[in-house]
């Protein structure tokens, strides 16, 4: 039977550029598992804002990813991301290594509807050397030579995240996690899962409005209790480090990953 | 009853606190209890000495989070010159201060792949005192030349650069970075370490005195501050680490530094 | 006797670049009147974020301003800004006409510590034609010709604003008015007056933290009840349109302005 | 009892609602009750017709504020293509669609100085349907060439431009903008206006039919919607305007349009 998660998942199509949040910033794991269970999407280009965790590792393990643009992928305290590391080593995915503020700069360029953002740093790094899409130019406002890197705008097709609450109009409370808003501003479609849907208007009270992403930027919302699990959700629950370690151990091999996914699937989906 | 002498870990923490002296705002990575402890000790010492308040931002922590503008704010804040010190690790660190957080072998399909460069390629350019901190000091970490430069130690003339390596602190000793050379100079060996061992464990050449100094242990006041107030503060963010630390320090199987 | 407002005012020195907020966004009128009463500051360069009102008109009337960078100055419903208009017509102040998003872009460049921000629009306007400091270049990421304007970073020496509340640590609640944060990020010194000082920690509760400018960016705070009057303060009080009209009528002439200032001084200072 | 016929103001509001048909998000300036009323009417009509919901952002209003990222968000939102229509006034408007919000005479020490250009030099480039709205239609407003271009009506080939003038609505009539010409074409004269008067009051040349149409009054349903629901909504944001409007419409000294 189709439910709200399916309705959200249906927006994600093969080949899309999907922006995903940092592991402590509201990872939509329930939606991710649903995408994997549906099994109809491949060739995703993931943009980690600015790093990735379990979500990225699982999507790679499930064979749904072609490219990952990121500043890092790891399982945090549980160690390296096994399916990501394996896929990079074997060349099964294309990796676009970045640095955190460069990813923020690319999204900001999209938010500001400009073709690029300048950024300091990066010069002389092999990150820069390996990014043909990033250009170095001399700062035209400087009298002397002053090389600076230009990061092209990053336009995700879809941004996905999990947040504490939304109201009936589709306004989403993100609190201080404003990179979630940045993802939504930059993306064409934004899909949000939440712990709860409130009956009040989040925009009507200045206190809640200050931490709210307006419905204007939100394509669709679905309820997903503990929807970030086993990642944590700030102010709601901590990461389940036992589960993350269990995954880390299991996913060391492709077979172990498959077994893990089959076994834990029914709990969530 | 006299306090037990400082452990190896305490020596690291105290050394970090010394390196942070005079700073106003220190940022610490999420899973970095030793740098966090060093920063908390520096803050307590500054307060005791009546010096300006030291602010500590611990990334990913809710309690020690001075930011309200999302994960971009750390970088903006660093760019604005509002962060004086930061810690960087490194799967490989070389004698030119280059840091590799990407992996071992030929990029991109490397033999070993690490998580990635995080914000290093920006923060290394913008924060004046970047302290390279890695407990493991072996020739596989301290290499002659890194396989991949996540963040370069120095930059060509004319490149905008407000920050960079300040010191390299490992389980074996403390180095200070000389950006004009560029390279590291051994400042002190931790108790129990010899210069010979240091050369053997280090893949790059470094300057040193003929007889390098020994890293100074903390005085009684500092040690008391660390084991009291700082340990308590640390426990709020890193409960497991603080518990282990307490056990180590107060006696069960003490790995004490022989001074 | 020196009080908190004097302590704040003492940070403002002749020749400084001072960022001031939009008329509905928390204008520090009590602090402005104090600056005028003290009478020791001249040659200010005002940066309106992105437009100005009574505050700007009064500082100009008091002869304290040399340059105004703005997208507009007016008294809103009360009509044109008389001292501003007169000073521009007579050439007594230098006017740097801008457009709202260009001022935001300049502050954002300072926030991001980059020398410039690109911005769309502006080409072919006389605003652009009269700003020698703005450069036009061809977008280096485009294959064809694609001219784009670069706005240099705006680095105010001081940012001043009035807000609903601050806590004892100097954290200031700004709610949705995030351009106030943008001003503070870009400025070296930030001076804030507030309606009330609360005993709670604004950063401790995620709900208030989401709308809080951290103390990290705040140089000093002073209590000033009804400190935006006769401008309004969102969520607290409406503009006093009678007073604004009274000012607009009086300040049509320099003499009328002087009389108004002398007469209303004691009420506030 | 039949409703009194539409007033001149109601004709303007209804015309604006027509111009907004099919839009999804309209932004309205702070002190613009007529455009706001037009947008509210368009929203009510869309709802009645079962068409997609129209969102209205009224700048400076707390109630009709869909933004939470400070005063930069309107411009970001427009740049992202999320705003379909906007209103611009103009101290001077010329036949090429150029708008002057700066003043009269030689810049910068002008004979008359107006407040300034606000966001026009950006929004005119980014919002597809910019409706130039100015009730005063005299030859001092509608000039051959503006003294200062706050925002140009058209741009050279190769200049990034997603938006621009769509229509010019005044107290005398409605013009549509032809960006290929570029120039205005008179679409209709408001009731009581003649082509001769229009030429006299307009400093620029414009295209027109030999016998221009008259701006159509609203049908009964639309008028009822305007005087009922829309007026009520309007009163929440513009109480004084709504009260004056009510008086004008319901009879005391009615300035009715003679149809």
Write a structural description:
Chains A, C: One of its GO terms (molecular function) is transferase activity. Chains A, C: Pfam families: CoA_trans. The complex is a heterotetramer, with 2 copies of chain A (269 residues) and 2 copies of chain B (259 residues). With 269 residues, chain A is an alpha/beta fold. Chain A folds into 2 domains: 2-98 and 154-264, Glutaconate Coenzyme A-transferase (3-Layer(aba) Sandwich), CATH 3.40.1080; 117-152, no CATH class. Helix content of chain A is 32%, strand content 23%. Chain A contains 10 helices and 12 strands. In chain A, the strands form 2 sheets. In chain A, strands 1, 2, 3, 4, 8, 9, 10, 11 and 12 form a 9-stranded mixed β-sheet that branches. In chain A, strand 1 (17-21), helix 2 (29-38) and strand 2 form a beta-alpha-beta unit. The longest helix of chain A is centred in the last third of the chain and has 15 residues, at 254-268. Chain A is globular, with a radius of gyration of 19 Å. The relative contact order of chain A is 0.18. By secondary structure, chain B is an alpha/beta fold. Chain B has a single domain (8-250), classed as 3-Layer(aba) Sandwich (Glutaconate Coenzyme A-transferase). Chain B contains 7 helices and 13 strands. Chain B has helices spanning 8-19, 33-48, 73-79, 120-126, 195-201, 220-237, 239-250, and strands at residues 25-28, 55-58, 85-88, 92-94, 99-100, 103-104, 112-113, 129-134, 142-143, 165-170, 173-178, 183-189, 213-214. In chain B, a hairpin with a 4-residue loop joins strand 11 and strand 12. In chain B, helix 6 (220-237) packs antiparallel against helix 7 (239-250). The longest helix of chain B has 18 residues, at 220-237. Mean pLDDT of chain B is 92; it is low at 252-259. Classes of the chains: A alpha/beta (269), B alpha/beta (259). Chains C and D meet through helix 4, helix 5, helix 6 and helix 7 of C and strand 7 and helix 4 of D.
């Amino acid at each position: 039977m189709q439910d709200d998660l399916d309705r959200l998942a249906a927006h994600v199509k093969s080949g899309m550029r999907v922006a995903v949040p940092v592991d402590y910033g509201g990872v939509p794991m329930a939606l991710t598992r649903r995408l994997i269970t549906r099994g109809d999407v491949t060739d995703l280009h993931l943009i980690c804002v600015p790093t990735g965790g379990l979500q990225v590792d699982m999507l790679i393990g499930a064979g749904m990813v072609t490219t990952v643009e990121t500043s890092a992928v790891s399982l945090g305290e549980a160690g390296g991301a096994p399916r990501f590391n394996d896929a990079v080593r074997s060349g099964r995915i294309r990796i676009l290594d970045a640095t955190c503020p460069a990813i923020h700069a690319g999204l900001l360029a999209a938010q500001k509807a400009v073709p690029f953002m300048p950024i300091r740093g990066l010069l002389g790094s092999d990150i820069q050397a390996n990014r043909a899409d990033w250009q170095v130019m001399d700062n035209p406002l400087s009298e002397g030579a002053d090389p600076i890197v230009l990061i092209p705008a990053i336009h995700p097709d879809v941004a996905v995240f999990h947040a504490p609450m939304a109201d009936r109009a589709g306004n989403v409370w993100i609190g201080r996690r404003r990179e979630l808003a940045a993802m939504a501003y930059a993306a064409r479609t934004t899909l949000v899962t939440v712990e709860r849907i409130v009956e009040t208007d989040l925009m009507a009270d200045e206190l809640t409005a200050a931490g709210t992403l307006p419905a204007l930027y939100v394509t669709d919302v679905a309820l997903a209790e503990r929807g970030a699990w086993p990642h944590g959700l700030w102010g709601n629950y901590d990461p389940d480090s036992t589960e993350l370690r269990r995954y880390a151990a299991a996913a060391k091999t492709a077979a172990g990953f498959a077994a893990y996914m089959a076994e834990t699937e029914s709990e969530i989906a | 009853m006299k306090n037990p002498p400082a452990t190896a870990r305490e020596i690291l923490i105290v050394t970090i606190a010394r390196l942070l002296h005079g700073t106003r705002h220190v940022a610490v990575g999420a899973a970095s209890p030793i740098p966090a402890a060093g920063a908390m000790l520096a803050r307590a010492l500054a307060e005791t000495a009546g010096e300006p308040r030291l602010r500590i931002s611990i990334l990913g922590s809710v309690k020690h989070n001075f930011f309200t503008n999302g994960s971009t704010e750390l970088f903006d804040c660093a760019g604005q010159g509002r962060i004086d010190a930061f810690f960087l690790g490194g799967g490989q660190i070389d004698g030119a201060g280059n840091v590799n957080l990407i992996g071992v072998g030929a990029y991109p399909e490397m033999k070993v792949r690490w998580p990635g460069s995080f914000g290093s390629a920006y923060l290394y350019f913008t924060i004046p005192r970047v302290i390279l901190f890695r407990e493991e000091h072996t020739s596989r970490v301290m290499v002659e030349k890194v396989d991949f430069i996540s963040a370069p130690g120095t930059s060509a003339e004319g490149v905008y650069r407000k920050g960079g390596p300040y010191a390299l602190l490992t389980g074996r000793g403390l180095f200070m970075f000389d950006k004009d050379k560029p390279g590291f100079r051994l400042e002190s060996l931790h108790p129990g370490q010899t210069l010979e061992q240091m050369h053997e464990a280090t893949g790059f050449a470094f300057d040193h005195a003929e007889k390098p100094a020994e890293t100074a242990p903390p005085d009684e006041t500092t040690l008391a501050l660390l084991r009291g107030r700082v340990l308590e503060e640390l426990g709020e963010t890193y409960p497991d680490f603080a518990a282990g630390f307490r056990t180590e320090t107060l006696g069960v199987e003490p790995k004490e530094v022989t001074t």
